[in-house]
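User: Let's play a game. I give you a shape written as tokens, and you guess the letters that built it. Ready? Here's round one.
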């Protein structure tokens, strides 16, 4: 089966030199890995989460070319097929691949969260987005209240985006 490091290398190639996309997925992967390990995910769930984090925005480059941006619903809609294609010859278990594709197809779905891997991917992606985009940084209180549930994710959010003491 493809290793996480091999998947990262493959995704870097897939990004064709787009530094923003490369740095974004690497940061989301790092936070997902960290949160998952500190929340004590079982080995299969941890690997599934990490593989999903690597490809969570796999549709963005094509969407930006076609539409000029990458709206969240289209990322979810088109990302699943691209993730499946990306991992098709990886030797990955069918159940794991199906879950990865499901996670990619729901990485901006904040309601009806299905599983700790889904929750952690949402949290990791938000932590990175808040560092990259002002609109997310301004929404940290809303996300803290409505999305974040893991102790580790909440702690990271508070430490990274705490309001300065006056």
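Assistant: Ready! My guess for every position:
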């Amino acid at each position: 089966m493809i290793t996480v490091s091999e998947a990262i290398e493959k995704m870097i190639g897939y990004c064709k030199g787009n530094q923003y996309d490369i740095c974004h997925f690497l940061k989301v992967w790092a936070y997902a890995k960290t949160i998952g390990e500190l929340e004590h995910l079982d080995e299969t769930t941890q690997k599934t989460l990490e593989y999903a984090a690597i490809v969570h925005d796999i549709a963005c480059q094509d969407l930006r070319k076609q539409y000029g941006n990458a709206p969240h619903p289209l990322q979810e809609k088109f990302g699943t097929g691209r993730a499946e294609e990306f991992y098709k010859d990886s030797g990955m278990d069918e159940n794991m691949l199906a879950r990865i594709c499901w996670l990619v197809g729901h990485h901006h779905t904040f309601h009806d969260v299905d599983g700790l891997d889904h929750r952690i991917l949402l949290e990791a992606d938000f932590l990175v987005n808040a560092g990259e985009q002002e609109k997310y940084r301004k929404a940290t209180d809303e996300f803290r209240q409505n999305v974040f549930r893991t102790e580790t994710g909440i702690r990271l959010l508070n430490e990274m985006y705490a309001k300065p003491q006056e």
